[in-house]
Design goal:
By secondary structure, the protein is of the alpha/beta class. It has helices at 2-9, 30-38, 59-74, 94-104, 121-126, 128-135, 140-145, 163-168, 181-191, 213-221, 230-245, 247-254, 257-282, 288-300, 302-321, and strands at residues 16-24, 44-49, 80-85, 88-90, 109-113, 115-116, 158-162, 196-200, 205-207, 326-327, 330-331, 340-347. The longest helix has 26 residues, at 257-282. The chain is globular.
């Protein structure tokens, strides 16, 4: 949180910038740390919320709804409102770049996809699948031009809205119980007749989501159960993933003749696709020989990555069935759950 506040204070943005930081019922000294990082900057206010989310609300949606309410009280008519997760890092021109993209594309919502930083082996294997999952199924420029809600792509780490349209769709109240509120907000924007776009944030937005296998597992299992369309959709997706990414390398190793050649071709295509996805996400070549070798090695381990993904999907569905999903100490399966810029930062 303090690092992001420092990034926001350093923004080279020509318009009026108002930042609201919300410590959402944390127990790790976030409020005091945020106040110290703000250091009396008049553009930054730090608020604290000690209440648990209302029944039927996820913690993320409730926090963002509270932030929006504070924003509209703080700035009477904000032209743009943005929501940024506390673990995101911004370059000095990040806000200006996002505002420029919103205006240049005449969009109601712009989502800069952060450069996803990784550290542990598990992160290297799993995190790139975030972008690969949609880059391998959608042609992003075409999806950005489309008005179909089903082709919307979004990233809740950084969402920037036209403020009036955000209010028109009901804001985060309209996705109160969603485990994938970012996608549902983008779809709501499109259903309301407006544009949502995804852009690469490489060079001005980055994020390291998790720093251990335990965090990564908890982070993915809290929402994967909702992403594949129930048991049937999950079964179809997992079968397709196994067919595309597990069968070819198995055929390359165990087969012979034409079978082996087809297996090698399928496996090679997956490796190339992973490298292309990383290129889009990072918007540059890996740094030095070590970076190149690491990227190639991770791409070659794609079958292991997909096996881990499949295990996380199954784990998520089992935990959901047991009512055992949680995130940072909060249970997620509540019984009822079936141009001024204002920037909100939520510590979750």
């Amino acid at each position: 949180m303090p690092l992001l506040i420092g990034d926001l204070r350093a923004q080279s943005f020509d318009g009026e910038l108002s930042v609201i930081v919300l410590d959402d019922n944390s127990s790790d000294g976030t409020f005091a740390a945020a106040r110290r990082a703000a250091d009396g900057d008049p553009r930054i206010s730090v608020a604290s919320n000690g209440a648990s989310p209302a029944p039927g609300w996820t913690g993320k949606a409730a926090a963002c709804f509270a932030l929006a309410d504070l924003a509209y009280k703080d700035v009477h008519h904000p032209g743009i409102i943005a929501f940024i997760d506390a673990d995101v890092r911004l370059s000095a021109d990040a806000i200006a770049a996002a505002v420029g993209a919103l205006r240049d594309h005449d969009a109601a919502l712009v989502c800069p996809w952060p450069d996803q930083k990784t550290g542990s082996i598990a992160e290297h294997l799993v995190q790139p699948l975030l972008s690969y999952s949609w880059m391998s199924t959608l042609f992003v420029p075409l999806a950005n031009r489309s008005s179909r809600p089903s082709l919307a792509v979004a990233c809740g780490q950084f969402l920037m809205f036209d403020s009036q349209i955000y209010r028109d769709i009901g804001g985060h109240k309209s996705v109160a119980s969603s485990a994938t509120e970012d996608l549902d907000l983008a779809r709501a924007v499109r259903r309301n007749g407006h544009r949502s776009i995804l852009i690469s944030g490489a060079g001005f937005v980055s994020c390291r989501m998790y720093e251990s296998w335990a965090e990564l597992r908890a982070g993915y299992t809290r929402w994967l159960w909702s992403s594949l369309g129930g048991r049937t959709g999950t079964a179809i997706t997992l079968s397709a993933v196994a067919l595309m990414y597990a069968v070819p390398p198995a055929a390359a190793v165990l087969g012979s003749g034409r079978t082996r050649r087809l297996g090698l071709a399928g496996y090679g295509a997956a490796v190339v696709a992973r490298l292309c996805a990383e290129k889009f996400e990072s918007n540059c070549r890996p740094d030095g020989l070590t970076g190149i070798l690491r990227s190639f090695g991770v791409a070659c381990a794609h079958p292991i990555s997909t096996a881990m993904f499949m295990a996380l999907v199954v784990d998520s569905r089992l935990r959901r069935a047991r009512n055992d999903l949680s995130w940072k100490g909060r249970a997620l399966n509540a019984p009822t759950m079936n141009t001024a810029v204002t920037t909100g930062v939520a510590e979750k």
